[in-house]
Amino acid sequence: MLALEAMYFGLGENTELAVLPSLIGTFSSIGGSPLDGWGLNDFTLGIKHRWIIQNPNSARPSFATFFFVTLPTTSWLGTPVPKGGLPPISVLPATHFGSPSLTGTLLLRKNIRPLRFYGGLYYTYSFPGIESVTAADPKFFAQFGDLIQYRMAVEDVVDENRGLGFLLEMVGLSELPFSVDGLPVNTHPTNFNLIGIQPSVEINLTDRLALSAGVLLPAWGTNQYLSTTPNFSLWYYFGKGTLQR
Known about the structure:
The protein has one helix spanning 73-77; strands at 2-4, 7-10, 15-20, 22-30, 33-40, 43-52, 62-71, 101-112, 115-126, 129-131, 140-142, 147-159, 164-175, 192-204, 209-222, 229-236. By secondary structure, it is mainly beta.
């Protein structure tokens, strides 16, 4: 279970800082040994900048970049982590538990009433180091392959006054059998792929509070677990005016 608090602070008209603390809860066992407990997840900070603003009278979309830094707080604090060494797919970039990581992201968005189209591509490099794939494994020098996460979504806003919308999203996560640092990958399997489909519903509960709920359904994968993951989010807007997503 991943409990995420995502906080976004405006640094300028088109730039924002993302602070992404979260808790991770694990309820499982490995080889008959229980691996239960809660703890602080790896901590992520990010800077987003919007370079191009979409033109409603043309096909030009909005284009933004996001750069994330992930600190290995699960390793520092001894947080129990689930077998497989990866958190569930979420708004966080997917990184290996306990591994300091850098993630570059490209984001596209285009509104064509009543639809909104989204796309995102994340590329993550994890620094090699002495760690374990899971909390129950012995430590070794781990060189992971780089990670690619990708998203495509379409949203239908059926009631703009209430902020009611339906979202269909395709998300994917792949580990490559190589890393940009040139060191050979020594974890097994050396690569994997996951693709899921998530339908969601969104609604503004008040002028400042919004709710979204969905379920991520596994569609295809290799060398990794296929799991069904429910997701629930509450968004609160502290600024002036009416909440707009």
